[in-house]
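call fold(seq) -> tokens
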Amino acid sequence: MTSLDTAALAALIDHTLLKPEATAEDVTALLREAEALGTYSVCVSPSMLPVRTTVKVATVCGFPSGQHASSIKAAEAADSVSKGADEIDMVLNVGLARAGDVSGVEAEIRAVREAAPAPVVLKVIIESAALDDAQIVAVCEAAERAGADFVKTSTGFHPAGGATEHAVQLMRRTVGDRLGVKASGGIRTREAAEAMVAAGASRLGLSSSRAILEGGTGSGY
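ret:
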């Protein structure tokens, strides 16, 4: 595996703070750290918007369970875009995916896509650890049909776990070079981050970005 230099790795990171106890002061610290590290973006909860930063701004919708009505997810996405979000990471309804209701999965992704049209970047969190391989392939294909820009492994909050190299490889094979693949959840070392990139990830969701970039061990998301 070829090692990425620090700047190149930082440029793939969505520097993330989604803890429910986070304060406005915590978010401000995140913004300044992202700017200092040169990460691609910050990812914060929608209630924290708007924010002022020189990096891209991502947020989440239907987070973390995905068990929200499609109309609520769409409204949340539209509200976040109106407050300056450049990117939306939506949690799909994992129950629909596990039940094989691919048309339902596609319909809710399409609803959010219509509420947050391009150039807003739409990432679909599939919660890969809770799905089998066939389900992962099916929801990635549905995300592509519905107009998503990325598929993303995990919220980082599901008890089944976070990103794995296997899931990232499978997602990349499914979407080819047509969509991005974001690995998130449980990535706590530089070695793990670089392994996800080698597996096919084009974006990383990290909360301990500084520690990981400096070769230490992070915690959290």
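DSSP finds nine helices and eight strands in the chain.
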